[in-house]
Design goal:
A hairpin with a 7-residue loop joins strand 7 and strand 8. By secondary structure, the protein is an alpha/beta fold. The protein has a five-stranded parallel sheet with strand order 2-1-3-4-5, sandwiched between helices. The protein folds into two domains: 109 residues, Rossmann fold (3-Layer(aba) Sandwich), CATH 3.40.50; 99 residues, 3-layer Sandwich (Rieske Iron-sulfur Protein), CATH 2.102.10.10. The structure holds FE2/S2 (inorganic) cluster (FES).
Length: 219
Amino acid sequence: MTRSLLLLGDAGGLARRMAPLAGELGLVLAQDGDHPPPPSELAVVVVDLARPRALEELASWRQQAPEAVLVAHLAAPDRTLWESAERLGCDLVTNRGALLVRLRARLSGGTAPSRRLFPLFDASEVAGRLGLVQRVATTPVGPVAVYQVGGTLSCLEDVCPHGGATVSEGELDGLLLTCPGHGSRFDVATGERLRGPADCALRRFEVTEREGRIQLLWR
Ligand code: FES
């Protein structure tokens, strides 16, 4: 099957620089003005964030081609744009100098999709705090709550699997988190269910710190 690299925007001669990489990876390079390849053929979509409506395009391609590697290219530093692109589910957000290197590394790394990053909050906001340190209502995995326990961050889904209550509004006593809905209990460090009526654990998500931001790792 034909596999394509769709490039939307040509700031700074992007197309000229991408063409050798596409050839090296056996991808057909398609650009604005070309007949767009069917989403099922797309291996990579690169969107230049300098384009008008670039963020809308990213959101649209994320939906249309969920398996493609979605890349946002930033010609000049802009943290707001960078984070917006990450929140839309980009696999890579990169600036001019790093684009080819990072994309080559990403595509040479095998077929297993890597996890995506979603920025949650600044690490400085939670430094030195314990217990519930942050709620984030909108993420790709739904509402989450982040707790600091034993020197590490524990990120748990914030919707009770029993009746949908906001679990982080319940009582936290040491590692014991009690749902305000009907009293289910969970281990805040692991999400493990300790007492019903909920019949399963809270999902726990991995987080990591990058450049001073706490980021959710998700697929
Ligand atoms: S909603 Fe949490 S125990 Fe019922």
